[in-house]
Amino acid sequence: MKTTSLSRKLLARVLSFYFVLTFLVTCVQIGAEYINTKSHITSELLTLEKTFSGSLTRAVWELNTQQAIDIADGLVAIPMIKGITITDENEQIIAQLGLVADEETLNMETLSDNITDNEYFNVSSSSDGLFGHSFPLIFEFSGRTTKVGSVTLLSSNEVIFNRIQVGIYFLIGNAMVKTAALVLLFSIAFSQLLTNPLNELTEQINQFDIDDPEASKLHVINYENNELNILQNAYNNLIDELVLYKEQLAQAQNKIISTNSQLDEQNLMLEQEVARKTSSLSTTMLKMEMQQRELLEQQSKLQAENNRRSVTEKTLIDTNHELKSSIIELNKAQERLLDAEKMAILGNISAEVSHEINTPIGVSITSTSYLADLLASLKSDIDKNTLSKRVLNEFTQNSEQGLNIVLNNLGRISDLVTSYKQVAVDQISDKIRLVNIGKYLDEIIHSLHPKLKKTSHSIKVDCPENSEIYCHAGAFSQIFTNLIINSMIHGFRDINRGVINIIVRQTGDHLHITYQDNGHGLSAQQLTHLFDAFYTTAEGQGGSGLGTHIVYDLVHDTLGGKVKASSTPGEGLRYDIEFSSMN
Question: Which residues contact 147 (CB under 8 A, 6 or more apart)?
Fold first, then answer.
C-alpha cells in the first residue's frame, strides 16, 4: 500500500493557500496601480485643458486653422496624448491627429449640470482601450459667452501600462521572492520538526526485538516537549508494561509447572484414599440410611414450624395494615391540628380586635348621648323662647366637638375592621392576587395593634412603595402573623422594648424578605429543631410548637419558596424568606 507523507500533505495545503492569497493580493495591487495611474492621467488632461483652452478658443474664433493645427501637433507630441480632435461650432473637424476612438463605441458621461452648450465629458472606448476628456471652447465677448467649438483629448491603456510596468514587475518579483523563501523555510521546518523525527521513530520501531524489549525503547534526541515526546513516552511505557507482563508470564509458567507436580502427587494420594474409602463405604451407607430417617423427622418438624410462621406472617401483615391506617389517621389529625392552630391564632386576633373595638364604640355612644342632651336642651330653649346667641354658639361648639369625637372613633373602628377583614379573609382563602407588600404588611401590623399596644415593642418596615407580587395573600399574612406573635411571646419574654425589623427587597419577580428581632435568640441545638412540629421553647407555658412549622409549610408548599433561620443567643432571631411571583 502506497504511503502518503503527512508533512508533504500539510505543507502542500499551507503553501496552496498562501499561493492563492499572494496571487489575489498581487492582482488587487496591480488593479489599484492601474486605477490610480489612470486617475493621474485624467488629472493631467484637465491641466492641459486649462493650459491650452484659451489659445485654442481664440484660434478657432479667429478661424486661424493653422494655429489650431500647430497647437494640436504640440499636444500630440506629449507622450500621454494619443489623439486630439478639434471641431468648430458646427461639429466640423478642424484638426484631428493621432488615434481616433470609434464613435459607435464611445461612452460620453456628463461631468457637470450646466447648460447644453457648456457641457464637459469623459470619453472612453472599451474596444480600443482609449479614454480621455472632451471639453467645449467658450469665447467671451462683451459679457456674452459663445461656444465656438470643442476639443477631445485621448489617451490609452498603453500609456497606463508603460507607467506601471516597473511597479508590476516589482510586485510580481516581490511575490515570487517571498513565495520561494516561504517554500524553502516551510520545507526546512517541516523536514526538521516533523519528517526527520518521524522517520527516526519509525526506524527504531521497525527494529523492535521481541526477545529483548528493553533494548527496543525509543531514544530520540528532542529537547522540546511536544507530541513526538508524548508518542515516544507512550511507546516506552508500552515497552515497560510488556517487560512486566513477560516477567509475570514467566512466573505464571513456573507456578503452573510446580502446580502440575503437586497435582501428580495429589492424584497418587487420591487413588490411595479411594481404595481406603471404598472399604468403609458399606459402613457409611448404613449411617446414611439412619441419617435419612433423622432428616425425614426434621423435615416434619420444619413443616410444622413453617406453618406456624405462615400464621405469624399473616398476623404481622394485618398488623402492618392497621399501622398504616393509624399513620394516615395521625397525618389527618396533624393537619386538623395545624388548621386548628391557624384558626386559634385568627380567633385570638378576633378577640383582641373585638375588645379593641369596644373602647371607641363606648366613647362614640357617650358622645352621642351628650349630643342628644344638648339637642334636648336647645329644643327646650326654643319652646320657651329663651334661645340666645350665646346658647346657640355653645351648642354649635359642643356639637362640633362631640361629632368630631364620634367621627374619629368610628374612623378608628373602620380602619381596624378593614385591616382585620382583609387579613382574616386572606387567611381562610387560597386565592392568588396582586399584593402590595408594603401596604399589606401595614394591614397585618394594624390587625395586631390590639396586642402590640399593650407592650412597648415596635415594628419597623423597610419596603419600596412599588413592591408588588402575585402570591397567596392568606399564606403571606399567616406567615408574618405567626412570626410577630412568636417574637412577642418567646423572643421578647421579660424584655420591655423589643424591636422587629422587616426588610423587603424585590428583583423582578423574585422577593427576598428579612425578618429579625432583637430578642433572646436560640442556641445552635434549638435552631436545628426550630421548624419541627410540636417543638417549643415554652413547653408547659401554653406554647403548641406549631407556629414556625406552619411558617415553614406555607413558605415551601404554598408559596413555593424557601426559608432559612439564623440566630445567636442574646442577639435575636433572623428569618430569610425568598419566593417568586405566582402569576
Answer: 89, 117, 118, 136, 137, 138, 139
Gap between the Cα atoms of 150 and 119, Å rounded: 10
Domain ranges, ordered by start, for the chain:
6-177, 429-580
CATH number, domain 429-580? 3.30.565.10
Integer-rounded Cα Rg, in Å, for the chain is: 57
Give the C-alpha separation, 186 to 195, whole Å: 12
Angstrom distances, CA of residue 6 to CA of 201, 233, 418: 15, 21, 87
**Closest listed residue to residue 530, CA positions, set 490, 499, 582:** 490
Q: What is the pLDDT along the chain (583 residues), one digit of tens a residue?
A: 455 566 677 777 877 888 888 888 888 988 888 889 888 888 888 888 888 888 888 888 888 888 888 888 888 888 888 889 889 888 888 888 888 876 544 444 333 334 344 445 566 555 567 888 888 888 887 778 888 889 998 888 888 888 888 888 888 888 888 888 888 887 787 777 777 777 777 777 777 777 776 666 766 655 566 667 777 777 778 777 877 887 888 888 888 888 888 888 888 888 777 777 777 776 777 778 788 888 888 888 888 888 888 888 888 888 877 777 767 776 665 566 556 555 655 555 565 556 556 656 765 676 677 677 778 887 887 888 877 778 778 778 777 776 766 676 676 566 556 655 545 554 555 678 898 999 989 888 887 777 777 788 999 999 998 899 999 887 888 889 889 988 888 889 888 889 999 999 999 999 999 999 999 999 888 888 888 876 676 554 445 566 788 888 889 988 899 999 999 888 899 999 999 998 7
Residue type at 581?
Answer: S
Name the nearest CA neighbour of 94 among 126, 62, 116: 62
Please tell me the distance from the alpha carbon of residue 316 to that of residue 154, in angstroms, as a whole number: 119
Give, in order, the Cα–Cα distances in Å from 315 to each of 302, 308, 321, 323, 326: 20, 11, 10, 12, 17
End-to-end CA distance of the chain: give it in Å, rounded.
Answer: 71
CATH architecture of 6-177: 2-Layer Sandwich (3.30)
Asked whether 486 and 548 are in contact (CB, 8 A), the reply is yes
Number of Cα atoms under 13 Å in the Cβ half of residue 250: 6
Task: Please give the Cα distance from 184 to 204 (Å, whole number).
Answer: 28
Q: Name the strands in the sheet holding 130-141, side by side, starting at the edge strand that comes first in the sequence.
A: 93-98, 83-88, 144-156, 130-141, 121-125, 107-110
